[in-house]
Amino acid sequence: MKNALKNALKNALKHYLLNKGFILQRATEKDKVLKLIEGLYPIRSELELIRLGPNGDGGYLLPNDLEGIEACFSPGVDKISEFELDCLKYEMKVFMADKSVERPNLNISEDEYKFIKKFVGCTNNDDFITIDDWVKSSDISDSSDLLLQMDIEGGEYNSIINISDSLINRFRIMIIEFHSLQDLWNPYFFSLNKTVFDKILQTHICVHIHPNNCCGIDSQCGVEIPRVAEFTFIRKDRIKIKNDETCFPHSLDFDNTKNESISLPKNWYKST
Length: 272
Known about the structure:
Blueprint: H1 2-19, H2 30-38, E1 43-44, E2 49-52, E3 60-63, E4 71-75, H3 82-89, E5 93-97, E6 114-116, E7 119-121, E8 128-130, H4 131-136, E9 146-150, H5 156-162, H6 165-168, E10 171-178, H7 187-203, E11 204-211, E12 217-220, E13 223-226, E14 229-235, E15 243-244
Parallel strand pairs: 4-5, 4-9, 5-6, 7-8, 9-10
Antiparallel strand pairs: 1-15, 2-3, 10-14, 11-14, 12-13
Helix pairs in contact: 5-7
């Protein structure tokens, strides 16, 4: 009797929500979310992490393995471009792209960097360019190592899916800010997200995650997920030592905003 009443109430609520226009769907299974997160546990290699850019938003941690990288490709231009200036100091060529601004905020000669007024995405038209076509159109060699620093407000998923295997393997280091991670509980977003991370993890390994304190942490089913986080990956052939990283935040991590500070949740790394 109890179960029958419970099911009746459940069905009544379901029909009520459907009649009100709500779309009902099952959430991603918790085990699947945890397995995806586990595959991204950062490792500690023989390469120390250094910081390029300011001590705040626009600064990132990456392995000290920059010698020989010919160029930095940085889609998504904000008010701060100190990261790109630091790349120039390491004798990299700098390429930037963003449809939403007229030019980067760089007080240097335009001869010292290349900027295209387009978004990076999964197609080519007046507003968008794929990463492959962007790299092909740039004045660099066909086989040199590159660096990718991407912060394009959610466009990272389609852009990365569209990168060719040959090009992604040329990015020695990739720093990518991933958005809307709390939507991993949505099966459709989970599938997209898993496809992107699986593609990256074929050739690269995560060495750092820094949650952006702009948007806080989502907590569901006992799993904490930063809504926005910066991930640093290095190509697998560049390292030999792969120990679990067990200490967060890193001493070089800084808050992105004046919002309340947050730390990487313990379910995102191999905690002791």
